[in-house]
């Protein structure tokens, strides 16, 4: 299979803790891939090492045929691989629309001269940026909040803003770290439709999510991490039916510990 994103033998330790340990992940173009696992399984660390925010100790990350292991996050993003954060990071002094427009600038070909001189080309690219931002605000259902400031948004809307900002960079792959966290049922359904629409436009998605039912519904294939290792990889139905996954993810002792911890 042709891979859009290929992760091989990826390992990253923090002291004695192997946050991820020999992890492999293959994502094809147009896939929606899921990564699930209990708290502390290494999901965010996997995203951090893929997207350049944390250097792996071992292993490689190949994106569209190029080795991007240990490349700086902005260079990886400029190539078309972006990620969202578990904790949202909007620009607080900008409106929702301005936040999304700012995202479009990552890949615009302006340069210093064009920021000083308003040429027809710059005007055109600004118009295109504004149009893209408005399209993304409509796609994510944030159009009515376009002129609001992030502090006026609820948790679910902040997550949608984070996704709109990522899409504004015109990525080919987006890594989404817990996009449904804090969303209510209506917002989750909206998110689901949004992600399917985004995929249908040709964007490849990798989703880390605690809402496993959402992952099983959305994803073409699912990787289960447990204590930093790949416990299982397969189609949603196979993963769901695996007793080892049920034990790791839904196991009685852990379920109790998790509900006590949250
Ligand atoms: N910067 C860090 N310094 C030290 N330990 C870390 C660091 N980042 C992660 N870890 C440890 O690595 C392990 C994996 O953490 P990670 O955040 O990747 O898990 P996760 O699967 O994303 O968990 P959650 O579902 O709670 O978000 C945990 O034991 C965590 O404590
Ligand atoms: Mg995490």
Briefly characterize the structure.
The protein has 262 residues and is of the alpha/beta class. The chain has helices spanning 43-50, 73-79, 96-104, 111-116, 120-139, 155-168, 185-200, 212-218, 236-241, 243-250, 252-261; strands spanning 5-14, 17-27, 32-36, 58-63, 66-67, 81-83, 173-177, 204-208, 221-226, 229-234.
- The unreliable regions are 252-258
> How many structurally independent domains?
2
The geometry reads as globular
Secondary-structure-derived class: alpha/beta
Examine the coordinates and then state which fold CATH places here, giving the name of the CATH topology of the largest domain. Rossmann fold
Second rung of CATH, namely the architecture of the largest domain: 3-Layer(aba) Sandwich
Full CATH superfamily name of the largest domain = P-loop containing nucleotide triphosphate hydrolases
Q: State the end-to-end distance.
A: 40 Å
Please state how the strands of the largest beta sheet are arranged side by side. 6-7-8-3-9-10
Q: What is the CATH class of the largest domain?
A: Alpha Beta
Keyphrases for this structure?
262 residues, alpha/beta, Rossmann fold, 2 domains, six-stranded mixed sheet, four-stranded antiparallel sheet, globular, binds magnesium ion
Describe this structure in words.
- This protein is an alpha/beta fold and 262 residues long.
- It folds into two domains: 1-80 and 174-262, 3-Layer(aba) Sandwich (Rossmann fold); 91-170, no CATH class.
- Helices cover 42% and strands 23% of the residues.
- The protein contains eleven helices and ten strands.
- The protein has helices at residues 43-50, 73-79, 96-104, 111-116, 120-139, 155-168, 185-200, 212-218, 236-241, 243-250, 252-261, and strands spanning 5-14, 17-27, 32-36, 58-63, 66-67, 81-83, 173-177, 204-208, 221-226, 229-234.
- A hairpin with a 2-residue loop joins strand 1 and strand 2.
- Helix 3 (96-104) packs across helix 5 (120-139), helix 3 packs parallel to helix 6 and helix 5 (120-139) packs antiparallel against helix 6.
- The longest helix has 20 residues, at 120-139.
- The protein is globular.
- Mean pLDDT is 89; it is low at 252-258.
- Magnesium ion (MG) binds at residues 43-44, 86.
């Amino acid at each position: 299979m042709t891979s859009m994103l290929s992760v091989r033998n990826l390992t990253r330790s923090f002291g004695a803790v192997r946050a991820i340990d020999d992890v492999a992940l293959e994502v094809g173009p147009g896939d929606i891939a899921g990564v699930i696992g209990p708290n502390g399984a290494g999901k965010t660390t996997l995203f951090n090492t893929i997207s350049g925010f944390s250097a792996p100790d071992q292993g490689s990350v190949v994106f569209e045929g190029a080795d991007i292991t240990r490349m700086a996050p902005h260079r990886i993003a400029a190539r078309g691989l972006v990620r969202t954060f578990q904790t949202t990071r909007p620009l607080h002094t900008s409106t929702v629309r301005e936040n999304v427009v700012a995202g479009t600038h990552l890949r615009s070909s302006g340069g210093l001269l064009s920021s000083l001189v308003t040429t027809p080309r710059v005007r055109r690219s600004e118009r295109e940026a504004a149009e893209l931002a408005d399209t993304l605000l409509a796609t994510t259902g944030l159009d009515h909040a376009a002129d609001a400031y992030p502090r006026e948004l609820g948790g679910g809307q902040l997550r949608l803003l984070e996704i709109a900002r990522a899409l504004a960079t015109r990525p080919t792959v987006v890594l989404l770290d817990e996009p449904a966290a804090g969303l209510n049922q209506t917002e989750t359904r909206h998110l689901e439709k949004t992600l399917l629409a985004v995929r249908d436009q040709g964007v490849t998605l990798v989703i880390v999510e605690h809402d496993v039912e959402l992952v099983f519904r959305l994803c073409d294939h699912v990787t289960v991490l447990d204590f930093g290792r790949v416990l299982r990889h397969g189609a949603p139905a196979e993963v769901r039916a695996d007793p080892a996954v049920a034990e790791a993810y839904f196991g009685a002792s852990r379920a109790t510990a998790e509900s006590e911890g949250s």
